[in-house]
Amino acid sequence: MSETTEIEKKSLEAHVELCAERYRFLENKLETVEGKIQDLNNVIREVHDMVQAMAEKRTDQIIAWGMGFITVLVGTLGYLLAIYVIK
């Protein structure tokens, strides 16, 4: 569609009309590409938010397990002290 036609070579009005049609076609294609890029950007943002939420959840899970482990250790230490030291 971007090749110069014989009628364009002979008529300035035909050239102007065909160029306008070409630019409309290019603008439509550009709008389509912009829309797809925006959609892709939205998907990337959603994935980023999901990964961040999963990381926060995993961090909370690790902290909870750590606190549980420390509680068991402190309880075991208290039990051993009560049995063997305090008698």
Task: Describe this entry's structure for a reader.
With 87 residues, the protein is mainly α. It has one domain (6-85). 91% of the residues lie in helices and 0% in strands. The protein is built from 2 helices and no strands. The chain is rod-shaped, with a radius of gyration of 35 Å. The chain starts with 5 loop residues before the first helix and ends with a helix. The mean pLDDT is 91.
Protein topology:
Blueprint: H1 6-10, H2 12-85
List keywords for this structure.
87 residues, mainly alpha
| Beta-strand percent range | under 5%
Shape: rod-shaped
SSE string: HH
* Total of DSSP H or I helical runs spanning 4+ residues: 2
Helicity level: over 70%
Concise summary:
The mean pLDDT is 91. Helices cover 91% and strands 0% of the residues. The protein is mainly alpha-helical and 87 residues long.
